[in-house]
């Protein structure tokens, strides 16, 4: 059976992965949130009124990864064996870099879960800080690398 999102009548469907082999899979995604220097300083100092921005964004990113199949049409509901987000404040560029690593052992990959994790985390940073900085920019959402499955290893160059 061909792995496609199009059925015999040309309509959308969820791909049948039941014949695929279970393998260890891992995906790493990235996002960046640009903001005013004062906003970044307030996050570091813990003076944002809504609370600890990065702790809440961490939990939000994990919850986003776990619920990807509820957000992305035709994305398979999968068991995630691990999800970690790392936040790096960059005062030179006035931004926060967000990296998510998601793992599972299954029949389909976790790229969408990693991309959802960084997106939801970035949106949470925006939501928690928008009262002081509505000019924040969420950018550079991308897959950095993935391994496992039939397609093997992907590593973003540059």
TrEMBL record:
Catalytic activity: (8S)-3',8-cyclo-7,8-dihydroguanosine 5'-triphosphate = cyclic pyranopterin phosphate + diphosphate
Pathway: Cofactor biosynthesis; molybdopterin biosynthesis
Gene Ontology MF terms in the entry: cyclic pyranopterin monophosphate synthase activity
InterPro entries (alphabetical): MoaC, MoaC_bact/euk, MoaC_sf, MoCo_biosynth_MoaA/MoaC, Mopterin_CF_biosynth-C_dom
Residues where substrate binds: 74-76, 112-113
A Pfam family it matches: MoaC
Keyword Lyase among UniProt keywords: yes
The organism's place on the tree of life at top rank: Bacteria
GO biological processes: Mo-molybdopterin cofactor biosynthetic process
Domain Molybdopterin cofactor biosynthesis C (MoaC): 14-149
Record: active site: 127
EC numbers, comma separated: 4.6.1.17
Record keywords, A-Z: Lyase, Molybdenum cofactor biosynthesis
Enzyme class: lyase
Function of the molecule: Catalyzes the conversion of (8S)-3',8-cyclo-7,8-dihydroguanosine 5'-triphosphate to cyclic pyranopterin monophosphate (cPMP).
Entry's family note: Belongs to the MoaC family.
NCBIfam families documented for this protein: moaC, PRK09364.1
Self-association and partners: Homohexamer; trimer of dimers.
The protein, known as: Cyclic pyranopterin monophosphate synthase
Organism: Fonticella tunisiensis
